[in-house]
Amino acid sequence: MDNLTIARLFSEAADLMELGEENPFKIRAYRNAAQLIAALPAPVTSLSPDERRALPGIGKDLAARLDEVARTGRLQLLDELRAKTPASLLEIKRLPGIGPRTLLMLWREMGIASATELEAAIHAGRLRTVRGFGPKKEATLLKALASNRDLVARHLLPDCLARGDALRAHLADAGPQARVVLAGGIRRGTELCSGIDIVAAGTARDLASIAEAFRSYSLVETTEESPGGLTARLWGGMQARLVMCAPTAFGATLVWHTGSDAHITHLQSRAEEKGLSFADGALQRGRTTLSTDSEETFYDALGLAWVPPELREGLDEIELAASGALPTLLEWDDLRGDLHMHTTASDGKVDAEAMAAAARDAGLDYIVITDHSPALAMVNGLDNRRALEHADHVRALDRRVKGIRVLAGIECDILADGRMDLDDEVLASLDFVIASLHSALTQPRAEITARVIKAIEHPSVDMIGHPTGRKLLRREGADLDIDAVLDAAAAHGVAMEINGQADRLDLRPSHARKAKARGIPIAVSSDAHSPRGLALKRWGLTVARRAGLTADDCLNARPLPAFRKALRRHRA
DNA sequence: GCCGTTTTCGGCCCGACTGTTTTCAGTCG
To answer: Which residue is nearest to nucleotide B13 (CA to C1')?
Structure first.
């Protein structure tokens, strides 16, 4: 069982314990364990019991729970909790404004145990009778319930990719001669996926054993036949779809099942122009199906260059592929620096030295340490005095450490009125300043747009961090006039961030395209809170590629001198 | 439930905002 699945068990147990009014510190211990496991480099099941016990935050009890999962693949505690409290309660807990207290009250006093029941209760006016509920809260809840419906059965990309990769490897083992690859949204890198799509091409014999391996996979709960293959519901609710084809149909089948729908529609038009047809995963001239043993062959038949999956969104990629003008997309190895990370000075897990060592080992040339400002009291944000001391500390580290440059920065809150959360002189003395929204995200469009623009106009601000503040599957983020914000950023030479946290991915691809069109430097940053977190740039990179960004568009793809020059110019 | 060189008990991140109250509970980050 993979780490993400195990982390989810502990996280769900924590959620359910919260409803049982357990000791809050016990709940936190389970949450911390979930976070730890999700971030472990090696499968937690591959560690010895002693190694598990030695993990920070894993004591006697949690180590025993982990042993149980490693041994049996189940967590009995979770089964017991699920028996006591309906799991459907947790879909309500995801709604904004509903915390554990409210949830418990709704369930105990009113018998509301699911999103559907909550919606019915609101419409029946039953919530009005409850202390603490008024028209405003009803309105926010109804809005959230509506968007929640759209999000049912959608999952974050890393969740889908981790499970998809594990399933793909399992199927590939069953048919060593076959080609077994991920398709669908996972392959295109969409930030939310509806499930796992896998295409397998091989001999009839190989395909038969792959289908059998799919049916008997440990996480599969139910399977049914679907066109060209099988569909399964996985434990935890995710869907997995397997499509099988002959090797000569691999190219067209993979294109078809990679999508997107809009891209396929454009390909169909292109096929018609060439006297061909493309339907149900088959490329045909008249009644003859053309052999496409690879995607390259498929695109070539349409007079197109191979289109990277991240660009297959039905925008301008077909024209570009026809004229040989597809961009050379940004790659992992292009990233020279990381401009956003936290340390134990605020809410990070390790100190600046450990982050620097990890970044150097990961091959980076430079990093910026950007801890929080004091508005975020909960994360021990730095006030003026501590920010200056921390900068001194980081610069001393920079002189001492070999093989990487470490710059002193800050992630400074943009206060509700648009002022910065630290003194101007302090910000001016740092090497790099990120300005971010963390609170009052529900301000009206005009107000919150003006607030971000005011931050952009501040002479010491170099970059806006996670501009809209969205949290995928949880909240929409600020109602920003993104065009106005980007116009201001372009005018003032302020960079924009693509934040790599999997539930942020903010800027989103459409916004990043607009930023590129204005010539705004775009950073792909990790917002890491631990050494492992540095790898989160991977998801930001996917967004950048979906936006058609090249290395030239990316601020932290520049070598340190060029990166610095870009900042100096804007400060001059 | 975890942790500890001041260790087996008593700590463990806390302040602002919101919608509702009429002085505050609950949520959020």
So the answer is: A378
